[in-house]
Amino acid sequence: MNDVYMLSDTMILQKIGDRVRSARLKQNITQKNLSEAANVSLTTLKNMEGGEIRSVDALLRILRTLGLLDAFQPLVDEEQLSPREYYEMVNEAKRKQRQRAVGKTNRTVNKEESEW
């Protein structure tokens, strides 16, 4: 497998287009049927299979229709905190909470002046 960072953007797009075409053919789906099921134009699908991907939205709809969205799972998963990271986060939040001053107050209430 090639290191994806060593590939040019054009080569990556071409490989994605090839994978879309391959998955479509393995599932015995015509371009017309896939474009209709994914709600994208036939031209968009043909361009995508040719390595011209201009719309992430269209790509997601096609991948969803083909059952290939698993490739995006790491991007949408919530990052898990280790127990130590969670402990530090909770303690940091506690330190940032506003605290009331502790001590005696200097206010004295003059009961004679109050009419209440």
Provide a quick synopsis of the model.
It contains six helices and no strands. The protein is an all-alpha fold and 116 residues long.
Keywords:
mainly alpha; single chain; 434 Repressor (Amino-terminal Domain); 0% strand
CATH homologous group name of one domain: lambda repressor-like DNA-binding domains
Note the run of SSEs as H and E: HHHHHH
* Beta-strand content bin: under 5%
- Using only C-alpha atoms, the radius of gyration works out to 30 Å
| Relative helix content | 40-55%
Q: Using DSSP, what is the number of strands?
A: 0
Termini separation (Å)?
85 Å
Class computed from helices, strands and strand pairing: mainly alpha
* Spatial shape: elongated
- Total of helices: 6
The CATH architecture term of one domain is Orthogonal Bundle
CATH class of one domain: Mainly Alpha
Q: How does the major sheet shape up?
A: none
Unreliably modeled segments:
none
